[in-house]
Amino acid sequence: MTEILAVFRSRSQAMDCNARLRAMGIAANLINTPREANVGCGLSLKIPPSSFERAKILIRKCNYSAFYGFLRMQNDYGRVIFGRI
């Protein structure tokens, strides 16, 4: 199963982005950034792959200073693999 994460280094910016995505009808969920992502502590938004393009446009338009980037999180038989998008 593949998930898309929008990774933030600021909790407040992640919460703001979550509210904006939900207002657009995108079912984003706030999660703690997984340690395996090697990004440090922060919050991430889990975005459905079907909504990735719309979410990407909104996040880039908002120009969040603490936005790290998008990661693909793939669960491969119990092993979690991360890749930068």
Order of helices and strands: EHEEHEE
Low-confidence stretches: none
CATH topology assignment? Alpha-Beta Plaits
Largest sheet: 5 strands, antiparallel
> How many DSSP E strands?
5
Indicate the radius of gyration in whole angstroms. 12 Å
Determine the number of helices (DSSP H or I, runs of at least 4 residues): 2
* Inertia-based shape: globular
- The end-to-end distance, rounded to whole angstroms, is 16 Å
Specify the CATH class.
Answer: Alpha Beta
Number of domains: 1
- Note the beta-strand portion: 35-45%
> Strand pairing plus helix content: what structural class?
alpha+beta
CATH architecture: 2-Layer Sandwich
Mean pLDDT: 92
Helix content: 25-40%
- Record the strand order, biggest sheet: 2-3-1-4-5
What this model shows, in words?
The protein is α+β, with helices and mostly antiparallel strands and 85 residues long. The chain has a single domain (2-84), classed as Alpha-Beta Plaits (2-Layer Sandwich), CATH 3.30.70. It is 28% helix and 38% strand. The protein has helices spanning 11-23, 52-62, and strands at residues 2-8, 29-32, 43-47, 67-76, 79-84. The chain has a 5-stranded antiparallel sheet. The two termini are 16 Å apart. The mean pLDDT is 92.
Q: Which helices and strands appear, and what pairs or packs with what?
A:
Layout: E1 2-8, H1 11-23, E2 29-32, E3 43-47, H2 52-62, E4 67-76, E5 79-84
Antiparallel strand pairs: 1-3, 1-4, 2-3, 4-5
In a nutshell, what does this entry contain?
The chain is α+β, with helices and mostly antiparallel strands and about 80 residues long.
